[in-house]
Amino acid sequence: MSVTRLPFEHSIYLRFAQCDTSGGVHFPRYMEMANDLVEVWFRERLGVDFHEFHLTERCGLPVINTELRVLAPSHLGERLSLGVGIQNLGRSSLILTIRGHANGEDRFEIRHKLVFVSLDDMRAMPIPDSLRPGLERDLMRAPTRTLDGTAPTSPEPRLAEGSAPQRHHRHSLVVRTSHCDPAGIVFYARYFEMLAAAQEDWFERALLTPVGGALRERGLRLQIDGTAAGFERVSRISERLDIDVWVSAINDPDFELACIVSCAGEIRLRARINARLSPLMRAAEGNTSPRLPDDLHEWMARFVAPANT
Q1: Which residue has the higher pLDDT, 288 or 50?
Q2: Do residues 164 and 242 make contact, with C-beta atoms less than 8 angstroms apart?
Q3: pLDDT for residue 146
């Protein structure tokens, strides 16, 4: 089986800390892997150290929006090859494609849109002259299609519009030091940890089926096939964030959750999670995705937003 190659690749072994109770990669970890890869790419291929770039040159590279597609699960102990390439390069922004493959098959694909900003005023700035030649080199070597065959410069990810519908689940938390990066704002990958927690809280409190309890007792697990987010405002330590969750679609056994993260009514990000229920045993052992149990389907249907929301 062939895999796709990108201009810069870096390999890792999957560790305990990157996996969930099924032994597979917990989906927020893919975002952490992507950030680690970008740091290595900056240092080893572009010749720029992230420490110098951020803390000395006072430049930032925040993610504006991102989309993750999980093509096949990755498991503890596997050697995962990560690759990065540039699909679009503007005056102050760029779109990255990040892919992972193992054992001859593609495992995931991430599309990041990032913008260069001054950390002094958080305003967009031109791409530094020291970086542009290296970025243009990897732009010319990037693949012309995504893994699903679509054009790489695809539109912004599809996300919930407007406000949360009347029937939604709210999960709240306070931003801690562990959520923040050296610039003092929430590190983008941490938002996906928050979304995962909100999703599990919804299962436990609204669907009365704890992911680690009643769901496992049924021989099922929650599997994430993809997620996307658009970041509208930064969040900082000690702020209280509200995460509103509702169902945007049910296509048994798949379902899609819409999420809005806000602080005192100000929206910080919008997100989407594509999920399904799978057997605890791996599909390779002869299992296929089951249908949603009738009671869960009924409870989920109560959180489906009206078509005009």
Answers
A1: 50
A2: no
A3: 67
